[in-house]
Amino acid sequence: MTTTPSLIDRPEAMFQLVRARQQRGARVGVIPTMGALHEGHLSLVEASNRACDVTIVTIFVNPAQFGPQEDFQKYPRTLESDLEALAKFKVDAVFTPRNEDMYPPGYSTYVDPPRVAQPWEGEHRPGHFRGVATVVLKLFQLCPADVAFFGAKDYQQTLVVRRMVEDLTVPSRIEIIPTLREADGLAMSSRNRYLTPPQRKQALTLSRSLELAAQMVAGGERASHRILAAMHAEFAAAGITDIDYVAIADPDTLAAIDEIRSPVVALIAARVGETRLIDNRLLTP
Predict the structure, then answer these.
(1) pTM greater than the 0.90 cutoff
(2) Of 170, 204, 212, 233, which one has the fewest beta carbons inside 10 Å?
(3) CB 271, CB 242: distance < 8 Å
(4) Confidence bin at 4 (pLDDT 50/70/90)
(5) Residue 168 DSSP SS3
């Protein structure tokens, strides 16, 4: 049995629904998304269904987190198919705020993101995390859920959101759900639909290089530069040359690590064709 969730586009209606349910003792979960939903997003919905009485999904393609040369205009808007996918779960409402309600004329207030936003994505996408932090805080104000669910694929984003919530005393608890992958290892992403079949095969280099890094660490390698060199060799062999970063970093601060003495995170951002993909993996010596 499937039931299409109700759509709410007015901020005041969204706020009133959440508060009304909470006043009746319900635990409310929210999954903030930009739509173009895939199985990874739906795993967050499943997690909310398990942990909460009420599940809200937000769909808003946030212009504030896209740079001038990025894909805001062509970012997939697939509301009809998104609703069909969500109908298979218990979703109480889908919040689709209008751009003019989120950023009305004269809007000028933005959230300065925490320090963990500065490296990696912060260097290659200036202003991106300011837009993320701003929209997430606004969504938490309009949909003040008890728990918010995010995917681990956007590793740096999860750190930014967790630190922002802690620093600004936002009462919502943050739950991070493991990355969902295709059978061949490719991390699920809304941008995967941009890939041609040959590019889709090339894109496996991201997960393959992360697996290589994990194997090297498991085999006793502790020097980051040797692991990074092996990962870069994988990209070169696949013909991928447009790489923003391949990094091994502290999992809490994202500072680059030279020698692996404790768990670290390997991070990748690269373009396959014109499609920018990211992936990560925790490495434990």
Answers:
(1) yes
(2) 233
(3) yes
(4) confident
(5) coil
- Which of residues 145 and 2 earns the better pLDDT score? 145
CA 76 – CA 34 distance, rounded (Å): 9
| Those residues with Cβ within 8 angstroms of residue 82's Cβ, 6 or more apart along the chain or in another chain | 35, 36, 37, 59, 94
Per residue in 12-29, pLDDT (tens digit) is 999 999 999 999 999 999
* Cα gap 277→5, rounded to integer Å: 30
Q: Give CA–CA dist 87/267, Å, rounded.
A: 34
Indicate the domain borders of the chain: 6-177, 190-283
In DSSP terms, 268 is beta-bridged to 246, 279
Model confidence at 1, in pLDDT bands (50, 70, 90)? low
Yes or no: domain 6-177 corresponds to CATH 3.50.50.60: no
CATH for 190-283? Answer: 3.30.1300.10
Show the DSSP H helices in the chain as ranges: 11-23, 39-51, 79-86, 99-102, 121-124, 128-142, 155-167, 197-218, 224-238
Long-range interactions of 157-163: CB distance < 8 A, separation 24+: 157/121, 157/129, 157/132, 159/116, 159/252, 159/254, 160/113, 160/114, 160/116, 160/117, 160/129, 160/132, 160/133, 161/132, 161/133, 161/136, 163/114, 163/115, 163/116
In the block, tokens 């990696």 appear at 120
Residue 76 confidence (pLDDT) above 80 = yes
